[in-house]
Design brief:
single chain, mainly alpha, globular
C-alpha cells in the first residue's frame, strides 16, 4: 500500500515501516483514512491489534473510538 502524504503529513510516508509503525498507521487510518485505506488495514493487520489500538490509543478522536468500538464489537 502506498500511503497518502495527506494522511501522514508529519513524516515521509515512504519511510513508514508497516510492522514497526503499525499502531501509528492504524490510528491515522481509523481517524482519517478513506475506504481503500480502511480495507487495506482490515486485511493487513490482526483484528486483535486493531481492537487494542481502538481501546488504548490516546490520539484517536472520541467519535472515532465510539464508531470503531461498535464495529469491532460485532466481529
Amino acid at each position: 500500500m502506498k500511503f497518502r502524504q495527506s494522511l501522514f503529513w508529519d513524516t515521509d510516508p515512504k519511510k513508514i515501516d508497516k510492522e514497526k509503525n503499525a499502531r501509528y498507521i492504524i490510528e491515522r487510518i481509523l481517524d482519517l483514512g478513506n475506504d481503500k485505506e480502511v480495507k487495506w488495514m482490515w486485511d493487513y493487520y490482526d483484528k486483535k491489534l486493531i481492537k487494542d489500538v481502538v481501546n488504548n490509543s490516546r490520539s484517536i478522536r472520541k467519535d472515532t473510538r465510539s464508531l470503531w468500538s461498535l464495529i469491532l464489537a460485532e466481529k
